[in-house]
């Protein structure tokens, strides 16, 4: 097995950009081994994290390093927010004497990242080690030397004090000790008495504190909203018990908080209700039926009554329960087919929920008046439209925010309480995980709108979305006093090799990451694998040979590359390219695997979901947007403008191999398999549905799929020629995304499998 597959070894190796050799950066000689900067005023000792940020920027001098890459690489395996990075940059600028308005060291690229603009050079050992030979920049000298003090004065070794409540957050520096030896050109200070020296050090300290505060202020002004981000950065655990703690909600009076809890995904969930300020004052609500889950608790008109979704698999009812007497009432029954995530207005008079009452149509929103029990449909999406889901009332109950979209393309919308005046709140789109109104103008949204799941905020007046922090955040809620509670989900997925004969997994994951390695596909010759991973910090495409180390394709960082599939000759990849920032412009590109050269295929349009090349190298098969579904298309490689729609139904997912095209349809169980040459089709009665979208593939004359009809779930192989299931194994993949890949000869199978997920609750005050 490749040595790089050892997680322990990976965790023990320093990053490639972290070297101990001295290096000149601007007016300083940087000593990484001792975390020191040597300048004209002497030597400054900095925190290791400051040194890491400086070295990471210096690894690509003159290039923009995105904020998310800095967070991933400098704070690996730690869920910290942009606020931590902003404060660290501010502190580093203070140490360097840099002005963010006129930078000579670190330039801010708004909404993107940072760039080191200072000149860098290697230091020859024994030549540039003395700080007295380094000419310090004027701005740095002005900040580090108080008025009236000679630049040649004896410096102090400054070490900023750590903040125990924020991961490496910046605070005002404190004096650790004076420099041991005085430079020769310091006669005035050498003759000063003790009182003068003490006054000088006090002045130096005050100047450093003021400079740090001023630098942080300027940084925050450029990267709003600072106050909200600071609160998120200082969030503390609310509950961190083993297992999953999900969907937290405050009572309207803020006196209680409730959430759902489960041992693990797929297991029944119960409810926990806790009095604020008394962690031991908890009560649990659970069903006596082992297959029933209690989900999405919402307080009704105070803290004594609660509503929740009582679900068996995906079939739910919404129930109201008196917490003292235990009396229950069905608010929304099975006939409306409500989805779990709903909301109750703060006054307890109305309930809004998403439902699937029209089985062949997308989810729509309905409002129930709790006083009169009258139900009114707010949205009725048509066939092929997007789902409307996860609604939330505004604080004054006059408006409803909700998500419109499907799969990983959800957008925040708002409308009046009666369903009138629907409008998109911003142009941000991506996978969403809940929302909460912070006030009547701002909505907190947990989504991956900026390339990773985190907390974002939407300004409903400016129709703009901004990143706030809290990576891994899901399902936020806001108390009347402004406190914010949310899930902190730690997700990880890796690739595992499966023996298709024995159905057993390999000894450990291949090419592991700290968060995800998935969306894998074998090359046509079976010797290489392409996959998506964040193993080097940010999400990227990688190509690896069997048993070899993966190579990251050299692609522009400000895009996301998804759904990558091999060309017929294995020399290129067809991929969807999405702008990482709103409005997430989408296009199809062909990527040269050896050089990373990108060829846009603009003639295919911007509404394409996925592109496959047939094994003969004649055609591209792809899917274009058709509302909630997709229309399957074909175009000859010789002339991509000669496009034609295939005479097939609208699909929700599709795939091709050397001889077949297979597809699924929305809300229809099963798989349709068609010959590529004549498109003669047959329906396969396999338990493949929307719930396992993507957890199936074609390969080596078979359909491999996640069978959710079995208990427990299994991975099954359906032989197309024999028309029967020829293998089952409990070693199963994840239920979402491209999670199964089969080598062309059928000798190897790769599964994307999820490690046990941990979800804790955090509270930001």
Characteristic key phrases:
765 residues; mainly beta; five-stranded antiparallel β-sheet; four-stranded antiparallel β-sheet; disordered N terminus
The chain-level structural class is mainly beta
Q: Report how far the terminal alpha carbons are from each other.
A: 48 Å
Task: Summarize model confidence as the mean pLDDT.
Answer: 82
Largest beta-sheet characterization: 5 strands, antiparallel
Query: What is the tally of helical segments?
Result: 8
| Apparent shape | globular
Assign a percent range to the helix content: 10-25%
Strand content: 35-45%
Total number of strands? 57
Whole-angstrom Rg = 29 Å
| Order of adjacent strands in the largest pleated sheet | 4-3-2-1-8
List the uncertain runs: 1-13, 127-205, 207-226
């Amino acid at each position: 097995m490749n040595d790089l597959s050892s997680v322990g070894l990976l965790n023990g190796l320093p990053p490639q950009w972290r070297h101990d050799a001295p290096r000149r950066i601007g007016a300083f000689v940087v000593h990484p081994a001792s975390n020191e900067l040597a300048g004209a005023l002497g030597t400054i000792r900095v925190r290791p994290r400051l040194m890491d940020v400086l070295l990471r920027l210096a690894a690509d001098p003159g290039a923009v390093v995105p904020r998310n890459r800095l967070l991933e690489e400098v704070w690996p395996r730690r869920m910290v927010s942009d606020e931590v990075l902003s404060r660290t940059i501010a502190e580093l600028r203070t140490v360097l004497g840099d002005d963010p308005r006129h930078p000579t060291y670190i330039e801010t690229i708004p909404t993107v990242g940072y760039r080191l603009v200072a000149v860098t050079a290697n230091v020859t050992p024994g030549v540039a080690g003395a700080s007295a030979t380094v000419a310090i920049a004027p701005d740095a000298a002005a900040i580090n030397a108080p008025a009236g003090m000679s630049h040649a004065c004896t410096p102090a070794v400054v070490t900023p004090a750590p903040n125990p409540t924020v991961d490496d957050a910046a605070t005002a520096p404190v004096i650790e000790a004076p420099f041991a030896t005085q430079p020769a050109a310091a006669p005035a200070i050498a003759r000063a008495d003790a009182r003068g020296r003490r006054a000088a050090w006090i002045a130096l300290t005050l100047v450093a504190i003021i400079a740090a505060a001023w630098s942080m202020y300027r940084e925050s002004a450029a990267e709003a909203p600072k106050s909200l981000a600071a609160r998120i950065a200082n969030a503390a655990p609310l509950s961190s018990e083993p297992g999953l703690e999900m969907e937290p909600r405050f009572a309207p009076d803020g006196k209680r908080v409730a959430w759902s809890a489960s041992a693990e995904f797929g297991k029944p969930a119960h409810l926990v209700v806790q009095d604020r300020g008394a962690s031991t004052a908890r009560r649990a609500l659970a069903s006596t039926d082992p297959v029933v889950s209690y989900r999405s608790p919402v307080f009704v008109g105070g803290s004594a009554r609660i509503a929740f979704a009582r679900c068996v698999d995906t079939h739910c009812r919404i129930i109201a329960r008196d917490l003292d007497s235990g009396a229950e009432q069905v608010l929304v029954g099975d006939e409306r087919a409500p989805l779990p995530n709903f909301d109750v207005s703060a006054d307890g008079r109305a309930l809004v929920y998403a439902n699937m009452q029209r089985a062949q149509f997308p989810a729509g929103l309905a409002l129930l008046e709790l006083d009169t029990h009258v139900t009114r449909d707010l949205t009725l999406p048509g066939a092929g439209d997007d789902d409307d889901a996860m609604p939330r009332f505004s604080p004054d109950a006059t408006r409803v925010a909700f998500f419109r979209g499907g799969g990983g393309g959800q957008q925040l919308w708002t409308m009046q309480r009666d369903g009138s005046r629907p409008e998109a709140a911003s142009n941000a789109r991506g996978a969403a995980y809940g929302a909460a109104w912070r006030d009547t103008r701002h909505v907190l949204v947990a989504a991956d709108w900026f390339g990773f799941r985190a907390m974002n905020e939407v300004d409903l007046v400016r129709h703009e979305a901004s990143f706030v922090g809290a990576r891994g955040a899901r399902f936020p809620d806001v108390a009347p006093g402004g406190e914010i509670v949310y899930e902190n989900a730690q997700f990880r997925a890796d690739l595992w090799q499966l023996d298709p004969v024995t159905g057993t997994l390999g000894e450990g994951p291949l090419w592991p990451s700290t968060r995800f390695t998935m969306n894998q596909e074998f090359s046509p010759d079976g010797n290489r694998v392409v996959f998506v991973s964040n193993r080097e910090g940010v999400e990227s495409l990688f190509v690896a040979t069997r048993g070899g180390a993966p190579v990251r394709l050299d692609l522009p960082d400000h895009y996301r590359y998804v759904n990558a599939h091999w060309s017929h000759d294995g020399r290129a990849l067809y991929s969807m390219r999405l702008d990482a920032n709103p409005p997430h412009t989408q296009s199809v590109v062909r990527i040269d695997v050896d050089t990373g050269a990108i060829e846009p295929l603009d003639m295919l349009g911007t509404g394409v979901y996925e592109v496959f090349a047939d094994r003969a190298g004649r055609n591209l098969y792809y899917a274009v947007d058709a509302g909630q579904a997709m229309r399957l298309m074909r175009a000859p490689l010789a002339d991509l403008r000669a496009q034609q729609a295939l005479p097939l139904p609208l699909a929700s997912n599709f795939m091709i191999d050397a001889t077949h095209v297979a597809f699924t349809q929305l809300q229809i169980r099963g798989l349709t398999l068609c010959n590529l040459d004549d498109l003669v089709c047959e329906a396969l009665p396999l338990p493949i549905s929307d719930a396992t979208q993507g957890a199936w593939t074609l390969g080596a004359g078979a359909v491999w799929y996640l069978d959710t009809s079995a208990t427990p779930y299994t991975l099954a192989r359906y032989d197309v020629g024999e028309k029967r299931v020829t293998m089952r194994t409990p070693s199963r993949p994840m239920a979402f995304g491209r999670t199964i890949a089969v080598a062309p000869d059928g000798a190897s199978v790769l599964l994307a499998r999820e490690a046990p997920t941990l979800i804790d609750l955090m509270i930001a005050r």
